[in-house]
Every structure is written in C-alpha cells, then in structure tokens.
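Morning F.,

Quick status update on the modeling queue. The single chain you submitted on Monday has been processed. Sequence for confirmation:
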Amino acid sequence: MLNHTDKKRYPLHLHIASLFTILVLLIGITLAWVSYKQISDLTFETTEILFTKTIDELELQFQKEYRPVATSVRLLASAAISEARNLDDRMQHIPILAEVLRDEPQVAGFGIGYTNGDYFIMRPLNTIHLRSVFEAPAEAVFMIDHISHNENGENRQIRIFLTEHLEPVGDSLFSQTSYDPRVRPWYQKAGVSSAIQVTSPYLFFFSKKVGITLSRSSIKGGSTVAADITLDNLSRILQKNRITPATFSLIFNANGEVLSHSTGGDSPFGDSPDNAIPLLSSLPGALVERIQHLANQEDKVVPFEHDDERWFGTVRNISTGNRLSIKLFIAAPERELLATAFEVRRTNIIIIIGVVLLVLPIAWFVANQIARPLRKLAHDARSIADFNFDNELEVDSIVLEVDQLSGAMESMRITISNFFNLITSLSAESDINRLLDRVTDETMKASAAEAAVIYLLSDQETELVAQPVRLKSGEVLSADMLPTEDLAAEVEGNSLLESFINQKSSVQVLEKCQHQDHHLLPLFEALGSDKITVVVLPLANRNDEGTGLLCLLYGDQGYGVNILSPEHIGFAQALSGFTAVSMESRQLLKMQKDLLQSFIELIAGAIDAKSPYTGGHCQRVPELAKMLAAAACDSKDPRFADFSLSEEEWEELHIAAWLHDCGKVTTPEYVVDKATKLETIYDRIHEIRMRFEVLKRDAEVEFWQQLAEGGKREQLQRQLDEQLAQLDDDFAFVAACNQG
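Structure tokens below.
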C-alpha cells in the first residue's frame, strides 16, 4: 500500500542509472589500482620464480653434462687399462675410450697416469683449436699421447693420430717432454681418497685451454684415471638458458675464479686471452660489490641498481654431485624481465578507461528499460523470496515500486523462512533414525504444533507403526503408548486409516469426554488438554505410494496461527511432502550402503576361498582393525590424545579393512601360495643358477684363451679363481634374497 507522505520520490530508473554509474566508476578505479598494485607486487615474485626455474634447469643440465664423466672415470679406474704396463697393452683398450669420448663430447680427453711416471691420454679432435695446436691430419678424429718414463728420468713422448675407425693416420711423432703426471694436481689429489676428485680451473699442459680435471685412483692403486673438461661447455649452457637477451650470468668458484660467463653484449672482462682464467675482481667495482652482496643473501632474488637501471639478481650454489664447489650469479634487467607484464598493465588501464566511458550512456539506457517492467512486476512480487529471513521487512524507500512490494514480501518472508529452515536442517542429516527425530521436531516447530508423531508403513506393508512422540517442550514419549494401526481393520471412523488409504489430508477435533476409546487418547494427558486438534497429513514417495502419516497435534490453549486456514494446511502439506522425499532418499541411501557391504563381503569370501592358507583372513582383518582403532580412540597415551574417528571415518575404515586384499581376486593361486620370491608354478632359482654356471664357463674359456695367447699362468689362474669365487658369492646372495 502506498505511503502518502510529503517525501519526494523519484522514478526507479534514476536510482538505477545513478547507482550503476557510481558502481562502474568505483569498480573501474578499483580494478585499475588493484591491477597496478598486483603487477607491481608480482614483479618480485615472478622474477624469483623465473630465476629459480632457470637455475634448476641449469643445475639439471649441468649434472647431466658432468655426472656421466664421473661415472666413466670410476669405470675406467676399475678397467684393465688402468693396470696395463706398456703401450701395446694400453692401445688394446682404445675402442672403449673412443666410445666414451663419442658419448661424452664435453670431455677433452681421458688420461691414465701410472706410478712409474708413464702417461697415456686419448683426446677427441673435435675443435679447430685442438686440430691447430696439435697439427692433426685432416682424417684424424682422435689423438693419443703416450709418455714413457725411463730409469734415467727421461720422458719419451709418442703421438699417434687415429681415424674415425681407430686406424692410425699420418706419421707417429716422437719427442722428449718434461711432463710427469705424478706432479700434476689431479694425480696428487686422487691419491688422498678413493672418491672422485675435482681440481680447480687451471691451464691444460698440452692444449693450452682452461678447464678442470676429474680424477680417481685405480682400484688396485697402480694408476690414476683422469678426465679433462674444458669450460667451453659451461658457456654454451649459460647461453642456452638465458632468460632475456640482456641476461648476465657467470659461474665462479670459492677462489673468485670465473669458470664461465654469458652476457647479452660485450664481455665485462675485456679482451682477455683464451688461456687466461678471468677473476671476479677484474669486473667493474660496483658489479663486484653487487655480486658479493648477493652471495651473502644466497638463494634470494634481490633488486639492485646498475648502470642507472633496475636489475634483479641472485647467487645460488650449483650441486655438481662431486667435490667441486661452484656458484652461479644470474641477473636480468627489469625492463626485459617484465616487459610483457608492463604491457598488460598499460593495456588494462586503457581498456578500463574505455569501458567506463562506454558504460555511462549504456547505464542510463538500461535503467530506463528496467524501470518499465518493474512497475508491472510489483504486483507479481509475491512469488519472489529474499533469502535473508532474520529481520522483519520495514521498507521505507523513496522508490515507488519498492514501496508497493513491501507488504507482499513480508508475508512471503515468514512462510519461506520456516520452509528453508526445515530444508537446511533435514538435508544435513544422513542417519534414518535421527532423520525421523529431526523431521518430527522441525515440522512441529515450523507448523507451531504442540506435539507431533509419525506413523510409518511396516516392512510387511500390513500396518502403520507409531514412532516416538515429540512434544513442544522437548520431551519424547515412547512409541509404545500408541497402538499399531492394522491396515486390514475397519476403515470407517478411523481418521488415520482413511487419510492413509485415500492419501488425503484431514483435520479432526477430539474431546476427551467423547473419545474415551480413541487410539490417540494417551496424548490428551501428555498435552494436558481435554481438547486437541489433529492435522493428519499422508506421506508418499516419488511414485505417489503411501509410506506413512504425519500427525500434528494442537491443544486448546490457543495456537497463535489459524490451523484451519487453507494457507496453514497448504504449508503443512508442503512440509509433509518434503519430509516423505527426504525419508525416502535416506532409506535408498541406506539400502545402497547395505548392498555395497554385501557385495564387499562377497568379494572377501571369494578371496578367502582361493587359498587354504589364508582362509578367513579377510573376515578377521576388519574386526582386528576396528579393535585397534577403538583401542587408540580410548587410549590415554599422550600420543593418541588427539586421535578420534568420526562416524564417516569409522565407515571408511570398515570398508577399507574389508577391501584391503581385493587385488587377490585376479591373482593366481600359485602366486598367493608361493614360498619363494622367484616361484611361480615352480621355483625359478634353478634358471638363475644355470646362468651363473654359464658365466663361470665363460670365465674358464677366457682363461684358456688368454693362456694360449701367451699370458702368465699364475696371474691368469688367480684372476680366474677370483671371478669364480665372486660368481659363487653373488649366487649365494641371490639365493638368500629368494627366501622369505
């Protein structure tokens, strides 16, 4: 109803247009500010993510490049070449060295220094620099240097060039040299420990290139195996992993020696020769200070100013998997690092400004379009509900149309609030028994009844069985006080049976003095009234089949609502319909769970029946698991103080315990009952034994072959005995592992 006052009211489209315009402006300004703020904040976060990802990739690639070299050194340290005593014996192993050099192009050469001063090294001629330094023939692919040390202290060097097929090419070169491997750092460090040793960067004696050497003493201690690695590959790795064109990165060690570097422009070290090792101290002073500052804040990305420009940089340790301790410095300018982000920010600002300017006339047009139908929809607002039911609607609006809706929405608020409270309460309950209690309570409260009782159809569908009676005071009366209604009994005069059979609601007013034999007589005393009104509502499932009755009882003290009004009866019928559907859904869910449990137990029984050794296992495990869980829940031990299981978790534990061996359904019996690890239909350890016997036969054949070729019998016999003993020991270990 219109409120006729002197307050001036304005058309709805003016309010909508003004509000919409203000909101768009506020949203546009807010979005622009938030977008700028977030991109500014993400500058640091994005940089750290990019640097971390780049450094991780560099570390993985570094380890991929250099770890195989260490593995090759270990293998060669245990190979026969490490104990070879002359050039001819050593040349027999060049196919192995050649294969390793082909697979590991980062290696500049594999060498073996012997305790008598001999030195044997094989190098790939894969660079123009090496071919020029050693004046290699055009067909040469590999080069071998062999230095033999005599008793007079003279070192005689032989240089042999090899083709791709390891055939000599050109003339062998003979010369004298002062090179003694025993005084080299890589040889001396290898003698300290049996682990892989790594030298600091140094100038290689023959190739005049800067690099590092990985070395390890041989198994028997008669030599030291080494692999030379130039630092050229490090530069290629850094160049490959550049984040931006101007990214500056360098790898340095604890001595301040720069192993490799990559820049987007001219080298910061000037025109230093290839055979010199750059030092951090040779960088510009300001940059050295920045690197030292970042090294003190390791693993953090820190912004800094360099050459009047903002940069982001970090210093991280690189894990090489050996004793080489190196660090990586990487930095990139902000203008390149976040160029895309800055462009997106500028684009967003332009788009927001354009949208705001475009929306202003649209808002006015849309507001006019909304106002016209709203005047007509004011009379239809009784079908709309506002989901905030806490406060009574007291509309005092300058909008004419809103004022017209206030009365209708207030009546809707009360009805929908009661209905949604019931829906919310019932939808959260899964247990059928608790659901019945809650349905009765909530329906009683929503309909302002003083008591409520539900009758359910029995499993045999022959009678209606009363459930506990719920009173408004919260008291619960036993269901035994109400008689069971037999569906085969006389229907006439029995309002409950009439409502159930006819599936129609009914209202009956009962007086105690006139209904001494009525089936609801015990409720007169419970309600403390001589007159009660019973509203009987049938409950039906989705197929419109009767499942029970909902009885709402009112005393004669006054109801606060008109229980006989069509609105109240309609509301009660809606509640009863929702109640019936909720109960049916929970019953179906319970039936599904029962079916699942039966199916699980069937699977468990089938599993137990497969083996006489594990029979009954699947039935015992659930009981034992629940006993252990219950003991943990009841334990007073501090370790279990916070341990408890909810009803859902107990159910999950129950199902998991029954299904713990479900995989055995498809497992063959001979696998389930197997006695050893290799047993299938029979124990296959004998096949393993046969393979070991073949290996022993091969060792004996190799013994006779080497003996026939002029080998020393004592040495060959000792090697044969060692191999046979090792094979017997390995088989004993495999046989032991096969048990249990």
